Amino acid sequence: MPLFAITIFLSALLLFLIQPLAARWLLPYYGGGAAVWTACMLFFQLMLLAGYSYAHWLTHRLSLKQQRTVHGSLVLLALLWLWWAGSVVSAPEPSGYPLLSILSWLLLLFGLPLLVIAASAPLVQRWFADRFPLRSPYRLYALSNVGSLGALLSYPFIVEPWLPLSQQFTGWQWGFTGLALLLLALLRWQLPKASTTSEAVAAASSRQWGYWLSLSAAGVVLLLAVTQQLTQNVPPVPFLWVVPLALYLLSFILVFNREHWYQRAIWLYLFGIGLVLALVLIHFGRLFDLYSQLALYLLILFSGCMLCHGELARLKPAASQLTRFYLAMALGGVLGGLLVNLLAPLLLNDFHEFPLVLLAILLLAVLPWQRQLVLWRKVAWLSGAASFALLAIWLHLLLNQFTVHQERNFYGSLVVRDIPVAGELQRILIDGTTSHGAQYLVEDQRQQALSYYRPGTGVALALQYGQPEAGLANGSKSAGRHFGMVGLGAGTLAVYGKAGDRIQFYELNPAVISTAQQHFSYLADSAATIEVLQGDGRLVLQQQLQQQGSQQFDVLVLDAFSSDAIPQHLLTREAFALYLQHLRADGVLAVHISNNYLDLTSVVRNHAHHFGLDALFFHTPADSQNPAATEWVLLTTNQDFIRQEAIQQAAGNWPTRLNPAIQWTDDFSNLLRVLK
């Protein structure tokens, strides 16, 4: 029996270690967005479905001898493939279809090993049930979720902070090697003595299948929707991936380990409270600090998962249908992943799947049992569901009465709204939940920079006064300057371009480019020559360096946002080394660090010290026309630029003490240490 337990524990540990590892690996190539995590989740759901399907076929179609031969061969093939692929598979290459390129890369590198791992849970449990018919195999399912939970909790606190990505992957390879040896030992010595493939298994009814699928899909959609909500404002790093997923797994552990640990009435009432909290968070979440948002979202997630998985545990079949039950759960998980990754971006222009799945879970928890409810309870729950739906619709219409344009794609959700500010109508671009550019609609004010880019901010000073030392020495206003802007937004920074200047914008999200061109006039009205390059700023700059050499920017601006979530790969030491190669020797690097949740000052200051740069901090308070306070850091070796009176007057004291230990590299970037 210990061999069964160790094997299933290790398989779950490896499965859920590779999820954050692979997503962390992929993030820099796809802009650091939360969609990378949901795409990885879809891949793992697909592999679970493939593994469970294979396990069901293997145990019901083949003899015991054939099972040994087929599965033993697959284990050896997967082991050889993993070590070969790890040495030859190159970095991912983003395409016009990012979801497809992510799935293809993951399949090439991890497909066969993950098929073996995914099949391990149902296979080992089925073999256990045949070997020990008087014991419940579902306790092993709870144990597998303990292994999964251990993997998730260890990654952000132990694995990621201490091991480079390359060593993480090598360690995972050796872990899979150990699992392969355990599986081969299990096949050789621990399988049941007689084959059970001839056993007749009663088919589940279509209604039962439908309920299994619906509950499983709803749990996955809720997990992904909550993760999306959390990572709109904070970088989608492993910590914020694994905490929701850990609670998702904890609900499985509780309901499948002890039946009495799931009390439907208690969790239903908690979920009802969560529905009210959800409406508040969706529309007024920015009024709460990060920790309050995290606690409230996780309460909603956990109560919803306890309902979905508790009902699944109530309906679990006999051991003879075990693989079929897990197959239905895996298929439901895939359907949930497809809903979030494929259908939702096509059919919905915002993250509406969050309130929709909450309503679906409430109905799934109440309707099948409505005949057992007394009349007043039945009326109360159904009335609550109707009230939630109507209130969600009313709040959505109220908030969107000023909306001019809204769209959603792989990279997130964009909204353009015309809103009166201090008596003047401003058109505002909102990415996620944060404004990323605004423009007056009145003709004679359209070329006035607003928001984070208004006159007097750090970036405005850099673009107005940042010019070669030769130009400063003779007092001339330098013409023909070259600016680089990582991040487009509404295109506001184009107003600082003069005739003869060249400005290159680097923007990952094609929806941002089309929105800036169609709904704002900054790009069209600029006197400078404008070029917009689509792609991740760091990757495009790297390609330009290799193919064209240094761009020799006078000023390079780093302003790549997805709401408040700044992609970490743009703020590592290696990234700064690349930026400096594209700057003139006397150029200026302007870094936007305004953020509600992260204190990035030590990250940037430590980079400045490493590269021998002077770093100046600029804080611009909010005013009536610009409701957001702004923080920029300028880095340069140009002493003439620093000594200018306008720069000296605007530069301020650093808001927090320097922490020399915060050193971000491509291998190490601990988000927890920079939370405010």
Automatic annotation (TrEMBL):
Query: SUPFAM superfamilies this protein is in?
Result: S-adenosyl-L-methionine-dependent methyltransferases
Q: Which residues cross the membrane?
A: 33-57, 69-86, 98-119, 140-159, 171-189, 209-227, 239-256, 268-288, 294-313, 325-348, 354-370, 379-399
Source domain of life is Bacteria
**Membrane keyword on record:** yes
- Provide the alphabetized UniProt keywords: Membrane, Polyamine biosynthesis, Transmembrane, Transmembrane helix
Say if the entry is tagged with keyword Glycoprotein.
Answer: no
Report the leader peptide range.
none
PANTHER family, sorted: THERMOSPERMINE SYNTHASE ACAULIS5
Question: Which protein is depicted?
Answer: Fused MFS/spermidine synthase
Species lineage: Bacteria, Pseudomonadati, Pseudomonadota, Gammaproteobacteria, Alkalimonas
